[in-house]
Amino acid sequence: MSQIHLRAEPGDVAEYVLLPGDPGRARRIAETYLEDARLYTEHRQLLGFTGTYQGVRVSVQTTGMGCPSAAIVAEELARLGARTLIRVGTLGGATPRVQPADLVVATAAVPNDGTTRQMLGGAPYAPAASFEVVEAAVASARELGVPHHAGLIMTEDAFYASTPEHARLWASRGVLGFEMEASAVFLVAAQHGLRAGCLTACSNDIGDPQLVPDEVLAQGVDRMVRVALDAVVRLAGAEAH
Q1: CA–CA gap between residue 155 and residue 212 (Å, rounded)
Q2: Domain ranges of the chain
Q3: Cα 208 to the chain's mean position, in Å?
Q4: pLDDT per residue of the chain (241 residues) written in tens, 0 to 9
Q5: Cα distances (Å, whole numbers) of residue 44 to 77, 110, 136
Q6: Which of 17, 118, 141, 218 could join 148 via S-S bond, C-beta 3.0 to 4.6 A?
């Protein structure tokens, strides 16, 4: 049956799905990188496209901003047959060593959000990326020569609540940066036995109110998407053997 929010049917969605928050980014990814991309949903501006990349069937599905929306989308994608979910977005750097437009491959997400708290009934939990996805993404970044970091991120609800002091405190605990969807994607994927990952390009340092210049961030996003798609090809190749 058609899903409530995505309005998609089984067969519309590929087993591998990239998850940008921004519908504009979803369209750009589909039109720039995928062959024969087809729009399968635009309900609520949650644009979803399916095409192929180097012979592998891939979907790109908008999540919107924040964990509530991302959790809904991930849940419905699971019901539609997706098997690997990879968030592709941006994050605010927690430490100056994460340079503007650098790629951050998340190994896990500190769940500083309300959605996973409600889903877990307040139980302690560590939302983590799937090892195979992290491994494939890091291997792809190395092969493509993309500057990258792999490690812990934090998922938060309140974009404007972050302060430099908050960022440096969590940086001292190993957090590389802050974003708004990964913990929910990781948890929903775990509940359904799916693989999940999160790749982000650094849009700014939390200690600096200025975002990275558009052209610099666009280059970082391009590198991130290429790494994510190359990782999908690696994962598909491994499964074929």
Answers
A1: 20
A2: 16-240
A3: 23
A4: 677 787 888 899 999 999 999 999 999 999 999 999 999 998 898 999 999 999 999 999 999 999 999 999 999 999 999 999 999 999 999 998 999 999 999 999 999 999 999 999 999 999 999 999 999 999 999 999 999 999 999 999 998 888 889 999 999 999 999 999 999 999 999 999 999 999 999 998 887 767 789 999 999 999 999 999 999 999 998 877 6
A5: 15, 29, 32
A6: 141
Fold of the CATH domain 16-240 = Rossmann fold (3.40.50)
Interatomic CA distance for residues 155 and 116, integer angstroms: 10
Pairing between strand 148-156 and 56-61?
unpaired
How far apart CA 56 and CA 151 sit, in angstroms, is: 28
8 A C-beta contact, residue 60 and residue 26: yes
Asked if residue 184 lies in contact with residue 113, where contact means CB atoms within 8 angstroms, the answer is yes
- For tokens 């980014």, name the residue: 25
Sign of CA dihedral 11, 228, 69, 215: negative
- The answer to whether 40 touches 112, Cβ cutoff 8 Å, is no
The phi and psi torsions of 176 (rounded to 5 degrees) equal -85, -30
Token pair recorded at residue 13: 């969605």
| Sequence-separated (6 or more) residues with CB below 8 Å from residue 103 | 141, 146, 147, 148, 149, 199, 200, 201, 202, 220, 223, 224, 227
Give me the residue label for tokens 């990349």.
53
AA identity, residue 50: T
Distance CA 125, CA 110 (A): 9
- Reported residue count of the chain is 241
- Whole-number CA gyration radius for the chain: 16
